[in-house]
Amino acid sequence: MSELTLIRHAQSLGNVDGSHADTDLSPLGLVQAEELRARLEGRKFDLVFASPLVRARRTARLALPDAELVIDERLRELEAQPVTHVLDVSKMSSEQLLAAARAPAEIRETGPEFVARVRTWLAALPRKGSIVAFTHFGVVRECIGLVTGQLAPQTIAHCSLHDLNLR
Fold this sequence. Notes:
The structure is a single chain. The chain contains 6 helices and 5 strands, in the order βααβαβααβαβ. The protein has a single domain, classed as Phosphoglycerate mutase-like (Rossmann fold). It has 167 residues and is of the alpha/beta class.
């Protein structure tokens, strides 16, 4: 059995200004990432994953500065066109998520494609050891739902930790 810790990235400038672009961390996000570092102190991880998006990579590097990051495209958030415009699904209602999933002309991937991408990442994880992933609201939410078989939370705070057991 492996232990998977999912972490939503720290607050980004895009979260603050509503642009949802691939931005660096906000001043509050820098503080959150430093506080996360203290919360993770003493924890050992065999694998450290991060989304390729700036806010997730920066959070990971500040929280675990000595870790070797494995950047995995499957951990990125649901993307809209152009690639620099990323949907912040944490601020979307269920109806908005469904509408986004049904708008392939405006979305790079559909909701089902996003879930399949996350499922593929989970299935590829080793079933032994301790793993941490710095990622996004939607990915954390889907992983929780896929692993537990229950509805995942509709709100997930920045730098929140979610520990799951993979069998």
